[in-house]
Structures
1.
Amino acid sequence: MATIKRLETPIVSVLLALLLAAVLPAAAGAAEVDHAGQYRACMILVKRNPEEAFESALAWRDLGGGDAANHCVAAALMGLNQYGEAAKRFENLAQEMKAGAGVKAGLLGHAAQAWLLHGMPERADEVLGAALELKPLDVDLMIDRAVARAALGRYRDAVGDLGQAIGLDSGRPDAFVFRASAYRYLDKLDEAEADANRALGLDPDHPEGLLERGIIRRLKGDNGGARSDWLRVLREAPGTAAARAAGANLEKMDVKTE
């Protein structure tokens, strides 16, 4: 079985869904508190100053902020890199709050992302399985579970999840990039390159897509093509994780053995 890393691989961004989550219902509490406004302000603060957001959310919770305040607490913990504690809080919130299946599935998805960042892909896989039972056709949950399974070396299962996701939404370049990576680990380089090309057909400047195609081209002996893709990442997405990986791969390729 292929190892986790042959060259620098795309780094999965697992935080995006947290900051795009729907606002949770405000708890019943003190009438003078604008819970909806507090929630919006707290989530903005999470991005700017997670430590301050954490303290603010705790104080708001004491004023009756309820589930919305607890959600902001968990999000702030993510921003503070306290991934394990954040994951537990997201799971507890999903279990305890009175909400529909879609909201609970979203919270479990947040928990799974935190478990991934905490280095526990097996727990992330379990939580995502529960989330998909609540919301079976959620493309984001399928993609996240594929990422967790790939982290466990279960590349065929990852390909299966990504195939389902693509079947539901064929306009997701990230799904094609992740499947290209999974195919690469399965030594199916032709399939991997085809998926990378599909991703770039949807978004020609997709940094992770260019990075992945460069890796595949390098493995197939197309050093010129690999160099072109990686240089393009450096040009189009400077300062990103994809650019750092592309730069590292270029350095490796340029090393001359004496």
2.
Amino acid sequence: MWVFDRWSPYSYQNNREKYKDDEEKREFNLKECLWFCMTSLTPQGGGEAPKNLSGRLVAATWWLFGFIIIASYTANLAAFLTVSRLDTPIESLDDLSKQYKIQYAPLNGSSTQTYFQRMANIEARFYEIWKEMSLNDSLTEVERAKLAVWDYPVSDKYTKMWQAMTEAGLPNTLDQAVARVRASKSSSEGFAYLGDATDIKYLEITNCDLTMVGEEFSRKPYAIAVQQGSPLKEQFNSAILQLLNRRELERLKEKWWNKNPEKKNCEKADDQSDGISIQNIGGVFIVIFVGIGLACITLAFEYWWYKYKKGSNVVEVQEAPVHRQQSFQEFGGAKAKEKVKFKDTTSYPRARF
């Protein structure tokens, strides 16, 4: 734009007589061209356009370019935020069973494996019972119509989960399960370990890269098994009640969970429901800080150029001292001592008593 305005015979700086009656007179030097390009991208606008046609074509091209860039950035930001919200995190066992990107499995031979295996067997047995009832030839048409339902009467949730576990492969040790979890690509793709809540809670407080998701399911208390009729049963019950009354169990829980020396102080993960975060629009703040920094550098350069290059004509005026008493006065080589007396001529009003 500066080149076109510099060499065009119809620009303001090359044809001032033609535009002398115009209200707005703007000479597009290099500084004005940069300012025009920057302000054209804002709702404030760039101000007066060049007078020559070639300069206006360049300005219109820059306006179109800026409009496309801003529209593309806005569309990409909206699409990014929409896609990130569509990626729903796993928050429960039902969410885990309805997806296919994350593999999951318990330890081989653990109580968790027994739980899912038994639930899958129960669903299979219920299905066989329903099938025998619905396909029984001895049923009348009315009885058969009562069993003819549109929805599947038996849930197959645990059957599908157990099938997915067997396909993913059950880890043999806890270290192997943790290694598979850490090898996951992201929180929405990889491997999830299903196990006892106490084991997972301990792994969570001692490792910042692991987290427990969802609520506990199939809660069952711990118990101490003794022989039937053994006197140890009453002794164990009495000892447990004494520990509860003295709050020893609470003290042990506080010691090993809240004040555990192996506990790590981990930062909390950001919640996606908070809306736009600083990571999404951090580039806007970077642009602001860069602009302020460039403005400060320019201000320092302007001050340095004005003070040291151009200089300023400063005239220092020194006031001559005034002496009320002159001790010596020289006349023709002789020194005479002269005293100067001052008379106070200030008048004061008379006071009456």
3.
Amino acid sequence: MLKELILEGQNRYFDSEICQNMPVSDSEIEELCKSMKETALKNTWQDSEKAKIKDVTKNTLISWGVLKDAEGKIYPTNAYALLTGKMPQMPVIQCGVFKGTNRAHFVDRREFEGSIQEQMEAAYQYVLEKINMGMTIMGMYRQDVYELPTDSIRELIANAVAHRSYLEPGNIQVALFDDRLEVTSPGMLLNNVTISKMMEGYSKPRNPAIARAFAYMKIIEKWGTGIPRLFEACEEYGLPKPELVDFDGDFRVNMYRKVKGEFGVNGVTTQTTQTHQSTQSKKSTLSDDDKKILELVHNYPSMSQREYANELGWNLDRVKYYLRKMKTQELIKRVGNSHSGYWEVLAEVNQLQN
């Protein structure tokens, strides 16, 4: 922690420091650039958004702090070493399933190696394999659902990878208990970062070079909305509030599962969602942010998601989240395709906002 404080006082970051005694070639740099763009494309759903993804170049990596140009010579930084999986004493992600609510009895355990982005994806898929799968009825259709919000699971693990302290010797641990999913990352909160600030959306990157690379690859949200979205998602799922814990040099997030029996037999829920909710029922579920974007969609149905983001002062991922949420709630629907279509509001906005 002392080394980190010294670097912070000098406005320097461990991930942007040169990785000593590590050679790098132009072909290796090109390979990383290509891999990062492939990941960004894989994590982008709409063709119109995919077309906007630019190539990563050597200069891009230098501007992010993944490479460093010193006196005309290119050096790899610690971020480069982590993004390529070539860091000396490369950290891993440790995953495990435990019987009960403590670590006394292992059911299964795995360690994931490779680049940090590969580790993150592998750990995420591991959790999906181990949690319950249920189903709900949306109108006339059966829809499979996980017991925990999958976007939040992914973001928790990704944020742990992006914001952990790489000066600490430990590994990220992802543990699944009977009552919770627990994600623990080495490194206490940075100066001026508090749990209450995080819940309001405050973010201070510990590893800005990695954060920039992850943001480009659509792995993390760089504007600090991850924790507020986590609480919103858990509330929508009917789950207990998550718990944020800063302790003993580590930071932990607990996402609590429903108590045994609430998710149905063998993970199959009997809960159904009716095709036509009453206006009163919909109104009771609307947050202030729901109302803001719903009114904007009502007034400007042909706007693009990026235009909505600009109008609201939000980032694009946040807009996508709320539009997807309101489609699920059958408050809006998309008419036509993503290029020439428009949004249709399925309820009277003035009634929903009263």
4.
Amino acid sequence: MNIQNITALADQLQSLGFDNLGNLLLKRICFKPENFLLTHKIAKGKEFLDFRLYFEKQKKNEAYVLSYYDATLQQENTLDEAMLAGVDVSQLENKMGSINWKQIFNLDEKKKFDQNDKLTWEAEAKVESVIETLAVLEQDEHGKAIASSLKLKYWNGASFYELFGSINPVKNKSDVSQRFYFSENSIGISVEEAYRFLQNKWLEKQMQLKRKQADTTPESENDETSETNGSGLLKKRRLNQSAKGKRNKINQD
């Protein structure tokens, strides 16, 4: 095993702001893949930076290099919203927090079931209610992101894969992403530099959205005015045509 290569990569990541990834590198590289991904999440106040680091094996010396990473700036999901798609999000979160999900997803557990004893199926009934509510929440675009976030939060560490497979976070519309490449002998973009870049990108996105909303409002008002004016002109034209028709009739008589 090329320990020097792993050490160099770990030092590079450390200098960029990715802490304690040496062991994860070791676990991936020991399988000698052609390429692999590492995921890393960093909290920045109420914001989160989600990283996906892509490594490739060089053919000339079979050493691994960091080719690029994708960075996503995620705003904190507002789980405290009162209602969304008819769902009380806070109530749903409280219900999910009250369930022992590790026990629920333990499909090998053998316990007594008695239809007359509610205690033997009460937990499963609560789970069914949660799953139904999550399905309703996922009908809303923003609700999809919140539902995914809740699943990842409360199902983390539980063996849910057999029933649901992997759960990927749903990208929120407010999230912004960027890919940063690394060339040979380059220092690369650090975590802090990526954070500042994405913050600026997010602010730019918000400003564009505000301008778009501001531009849309006058257009709507103009459309209504045009329709009103158009109706008035049409009415005036009809009156003129009616008067002209009457004059022609009198002349004919």
